[in-house]
Design brief:
Elements: E1 6-9, E2 14-15, E3 24-25, E4 37-42, E5 48-52, E6 55-59, E7 63-67, E8 72-74, E9 77-78, E10 81-86, E11 92-96, E12 101-105, E13 110-114, E14 129-131, E15 137-140, E16 146-150, E17 155-159, E18 172-175, E19 181-185, E20 188-193, E21 198-202, E22 213-218, E23 224-228, E24 232-237, E25 242-246, E26 256-261, E27 267-271, E28 274-279, E29 284-288
Antiparallel strand pairs: 1-7, 2-3, 4-5, 5-6, 6-7, 8-9, 10-11, 11-12, 12-13, 14-15, 15-16, 16-17, 18-19, 19-20, 20-21, 22-23, 23-24, 24-25, 26-27, 27-28, 28-29
């Protein structure tokens, strides 16, 4: 049974001083359990789930609901949550670094625990998980490739064929419009076709900027965006069969590891050198870093 969360009224975001742009701070002063955010998810009801170094909370725009079921590793810190996703039953799957998966059912008021293999998932780092269009959960591991979990009966199976690539590393995972699963590693991309049970590999020799993949994303136009360790971005158009690049000459001077697309179609890219914003209509990139207030 899930213990009732602690409900806290959220404070107003603070405008960051001396910032060249309108950047607001939202941290412990506003009600977050901790200031180091490790994962975020907007669920099917529009609620924001925010994982921090000090716990997990749900935010409805006015109040935080703080949950305390994640096991404490040491005083003041819990097992790190690296990924959040929602299944077709509305349950929230919470992937941690040391304690496997927690499954939170807000409707039933319950929380369960699930692990595939403690030896395999002793350290998950920031290896991704996604819920595919069929309602199956795909999760990556450091050395054992991909596992597929059926959330309904809590069974799992291992995907063969990735062991020889990057020593089984499977870090970034996305699903494309044809239901193929793309997996990023330190040896390029693996594209898994669940229907034919085949795996196709892409790497630097096939046109990527780097064999080491740092980010993976599909935009509204179904193009695949790939972060590269060589400081740049690949844009793969599967329909046209082309790969375009954004590199230093276009303004990318950092290693991009996360992407998101806003309502205006702009692509926001987080990197080790600040934030990049790509405007599709003008094909221009804007850079925001510490000088602008980050």
């Amino acid at each position: 049974i899930l213990e009732p969360p602690v409900i806290i009224k959220a404070g107003l975001p603070k405008l960051r001083k001396n910032a060249a742009l309108g950047i607001f701070d939202f941290n412990e002063d506003q009600g977050l359990p901790g200031s180091f955010v490790t994962a975020m998810l907007q669920d099917s009801h529009g609620m924001m789930w925010i994982a921090t170094d000090k716990g997990l909370c749900r935010f409805n725009g006015a109040y935080f609901e703080e949950y305390s079921f994640i096991e404490t590793i040491f005083i003041g810190s819990v097992a790190t949550v690296y990924s959040l996703t929602e299944d077709k039953q509305g349950r929230i799957w919470i992937k941690t670094d040391l304690k496997g998966f927690y499954i939170l059912d807000p409707k039933a008021g319950t929380v369960g625990h699930f692990n595939i293999d403690p030896a395999v998932f002793a350290l998950n780092d920031d290896h991704e998980m996604i819920m595919d269009s069929k309602g199956l959960l795909w999760t990556g591991s450091i050395h054992n490739g991909i596992y597929i979990v059926d959330p309904q009966n809590l069974t799992f199976r291992h995907v063969p064929g990735l062991q020889r690539v990057a020593n089984g590393q499977a870090q970034q995972i996305i699903e494309d419009e044809d239901n193929n699963i793309w997996v990023g590693s330190s040896s390029g991309l693996a594209v898994i076709n669940p229907k034919s049970h085949t795996v196709h590999f892409l790497n630097k020799s096939a046109g990527l900027l780097s064999d080491t993949i740092t980010g993976l994303f599909m935009d509204k136009e179904k193009r695949i965006w790939v972060g590269a360790a060589s400081e740049g971005v690949d844009i793969i158009d599967t329909k046209e069969g082309t790969i375009k690049h954004l590199v230093s000459t276009q303004g990318i001077k950092g290693v991009v590891n996360h992407f998101i697309e806003d309502n205006d179609g702009k692509i926001w890219m987080a990197s080790d050198n600040g934030m990049y914003i790509f405007e599709k209509s003008t094909q221009k990139i804007k850079h925001i870093d510490a000088q602008e207030g980050l």
